[in-house]
Amino acid sequence: SLKTDLRDGARLCRLVEFVGGAKQLTSALRLPATNRTTKLRNTELALKAMEAKGVAFGGGGHGGYGARDAHGLADLLVQGHCEATLGVLWSLFSQCAVPALAPPELVHKETARARRLALGLGFGDVLAEEDAELDERADAWERGGGGEGAEEAASLLGWVRAVCACYNLRVCNLSTSLRTGRVLCALVHAH
Q1: How far apart are CA 90 and CA 84, in angstroms?
Q2: What is the pTM of this model?
Q3: pLDDT of 64
Q4: How far apart, in whole angstroms, are the C-alpha atoms of residue 14 and residue 86?
Q5: In 3D, which of 93, 2, 1, 4 has the Cα closest to residue 50?
Q6: What is the pLDDT of residues 124-176, one digit of tens each?
Q7: d(Cα 141, Cα 139) in Å, to the nearest integer?
Q8: What 3-state DSSP class applies to 63?
């Protein structure tokens, strides 16, 4: 579980190496991490490597969970704080993995292609309804200061909506729409 698997810093270091491209973190780990001091050191090692790669943590600089520095955030992760753990993982993936796997210009190009296809298939009404909702969310993000990864999430949502419109599927967001499996099937079928 997230609450326990990342507490010693070892898996987080391996993840930062794999996703973030950091070098030689696992060789610097102290294992087995049986005490709190060792777990903190390992976790701080991963967080500092993320910061060196330019990964910015959400609100407040270090996760917005009351942590004022990398040590404070590491302390939360070692304690098993789920929100802080998810925040660190989202920061890593949204700022390292997503841009590498789906460059923004490619996502926009694919979205435009899928929109043209949906319009050609006669599903313009699905796109129009979703465009209105997406405009409302974009306005809300701008008023609220956006947030970390908001632009990437909006871009990805736009692509999913355009592809699913070709199958006459409405997508309201990335969490509830993926629960039934129909959206995922449409995405896999389209590619």
Answers
A1: 10
A2: 0.65
A3: 53
A4: 16
A5: 93
A6: 887 777 666 665 555 554 444 555 556 777 788 889 999 999 999 988 887 78
A7: 5
A8: coil
